[in-house]
Amino acid sequence: MGDALLLAEFKTDSEGNGYKPYTVASNVSALRQFLVYLRDRGVAPDSASSADVKAFLRKRVRRFRQQHDRSPKNADWLRQYTNPIDRFLRLVQGQWPPAPQSSAKPNEQFHRDVIEGYGRWLIEVRGLSEATLEKNCRAAGVFIDWLGRRASRRSLGRLTIADIDGFLAWRLSALRRATRSGQCVCLRSFLRYLFWADLLSNDLSVAVRGPIIYQHAEIPRAFTEPQIKKILGAARADRSAKGMRDYAILLMLATYGLRSGEVTWMRLDDIDWRGEKLRIRRSKTRTESTLPLVAPVARALLKYLRHGRPTTKLPHLFLRSRAPIVPLRHVSYLNGIIESRMRQAGIAADGRHGSHAFRFARALSLLRAAVPMKSIGDLLGHRTTRSTEVYLRLDTEDLRAISLDLPGKDHDASMVRKPRVITR
């Protein structure tokens, strides 16, 4: 394929991913220089290497010095070349940067194979979600890196409980109690896989004991109603495409108490406009439920779809507002939206206040309205009322006001008022 056709394909791809015309023109100009450089050296674009890119960048820097008698002031200058070149080579070669052919560390490939095998085991054997896969594989990678040379194919089978204790002492010292417990769960799972795959001679997972986490030990964090109004107001005041998207997302969080994954996984066909319904894919239970499409949410979604959502064939409802146009796949996207609007609204909240702070706030508002726990659980996507009991700890004053019993607690006989005997 000639250079002109390659540039045309790149231009079409860039426009489809939401890049502005000026950016596309600038990128095509930079790529044209890169393709001339490759052609002069007899290198085809589909076989270009990292060394070719580095050599081209060095040549551009030398020419800049000749023209301006100085070096570029900062590394940002190179991005006018590196960004389009990376996207172009990814389009032409399929994978860029190319996978390393070899490594200076003999165990590095073995480490990658172990982590990849563990990931397949989590999905194919254990049937866990992508979110759990990402979290567990990240924790397994930390453990493998800590072992270093002891994580070779030959020595891995000789791990002892002392090695596990040493890692946990190093890893858990600076973590909070709940995080320590989660890390122990991840390590236990990874050790179970290593034994299952015959990489460990003994099942060391039975020796991992995390801290005891008492059920309902902490009061969950929730936004107050005034805080939610300020956050929604800050997003609504932003008339940009990003503001329309953020307002629709935040309003859905506040209205339905959705989990972050339930928002990011939402697709266009999940909205039944005629039936006034929303299909929710529950990220934790892997089930689906249907919720009513209330008027304020419908108006916010319509405004976003008509005036804020980029024109694309992607089926996902919520997308990045800037190029490249991709779905909001990760929890960090939603947390970033919430934190940004909190700052804009002048709200400083202690601790973590992500999508779950909206979720708990919604449960609290329903609890104050004396809505039955079963109905609250149905809205939040809980399978049992036991999962909803956590929300009973949100406001003890509310519990006293509506006379709800705390789960598992008996009435104190001294608090029961005896009936008064009326005598005439």
Short summary:
The protein has 424 residues and is mainly alpha-helical.
Summarize the structure in words.
- The chain is mostly helical and 424 residues long.
- The protein folds into three domains: 3-93, DNA polymerase, domain 1; 108-207, DNA polymerase, domain 1; 225-402, hpI Integrase, Chain A, CATH 1.10.443.
- The chain has 17 helices and three strands.
- A three-stranded antiparallel β-sheet has the order 1-2-3, with no helix packed on it.
- Strand 1 (271-272) and strand 2 (277-281) form a beta hairpin.
- It starts with a helix and ends in a 22-residue tail after the last helix.
- The model is unreliable at 399-424 (pLDDT under 50).
List keywords for this structure.
424 residues; mainly alpha; DNA polymerase, domain 1; hpI Integrase, Chain A; 3 domains; 3-stranded antiparallel β-sheet; 17 helices
Write the layout of secondary structure elements.
Elements lengths: L2 H14 L4 H20 L9 H19 L10 H15 L14 H18 L4 H18 L13 H12 L4 H20 L28 H13 L3 H16 L3 H5 L6 E2 L4 E5 L6 E5 L2 H13 L23 H14 L10 H14 L4 H8 L4 H4 L7 H7 L22
Antiparallel strand pairs: 1-2, 2-3
Helix pairs in contact: 1-2, 2-4, 5-6, 6-8, 9-10, 9-13, 10-12, 10-14
